[in-house]
Amino acid sequence: MILLLSYLPLLILLGIAVVIDWRQRRIPNWLNLLIFLGGVFSVTTGGLPISGWECLLGVLVGFGMVIPRVLLGATGAGDLKQHMAVGAWVGPVGIVVVVLGSTMIGGLMAVVQAACSGKLTLLARNSAVLAINLVHVRTVGVDHLQQTGQGFRSIDRPLPYAVPLFLATTGYLLARVMV
């Protein structure tokens, strides 16, 4: 329980991000910076069970795992910065779990949103074309792949990606406490 309390500032800040992202479909830089600095502060004062190197690696792994989605236009830079900031709190192993979890939750949200707006077929077609382009990236080129990804809009409004990130982070932290 004490371990979970040390992550309470992270969960509160991610909760604020959820509210802002839900309303505005953007995550302010000041909030991502605050999340990042909170993680660095907590690590340097011994409040978290990871080292300074793990904090740095968490940021870098978060960047490495999410930057392809930004380049494809699947997510925004605010989401990238928020993943990096969470990486400062949970380290490299934690951010891998959180990114994979948030990707699954975000995918489910996209399917539900497309189904509710009658665009499920369009989402399936766009996803198939993007997957084929990804498999043949050496033939079609990275620029074509990027243009294809940015040109597809299967849903009317971008997903508030702070929601799946909050849920995945909370799930990861609860799992760590239970083990």
Describe the structure.
The chain is mostly helical. The protein has a domain at 2-101 and 160-178. 81% of the residues lie in helices and 0% in strands. It contains nine helices and no strands. It has helices at 2-6, 8-24, 29-44, 52-71, 77-116, 120-135, 137-140, 142-151, 162-178. The longest helix is centred in the middle third of the chain and has 40 residues, at 77-116. The radius of gyration is 17 Å and the shape is globular. The termini are close together.
List the topology elements.
Elements: H1 2-6, H2 8-24, H3 29-44, H4 52-71, H5 77-116, H6 120-135, H7 137-140, H8 142-151, H9 162-178
What are the main properties of this structure?
mainly alpha, 81% helix, 179 residues, 0% strand
Which strand-content bin applies to the residues?
under 5%
Number of helices: 9
Number of strands: 0
Described by the principal axes of the CA atoms, the overall outline is globular
Straight-line distance between termini: 11 Å
Q: What is the SS-derived class?
A: mainly alpha
- The low-confidence runs, each spanning 5 or more residues with pLDDT under 50, are none
User: How big is the Rg?
Assistant: 17 Å
Helix content bin: over 70%
State the order of secondary-structure elements, H for helix, E for strand.
HHHHHHHHH
- Give the integer mean of the pLDDT values: 88
Largest sheet, in brief, is: none
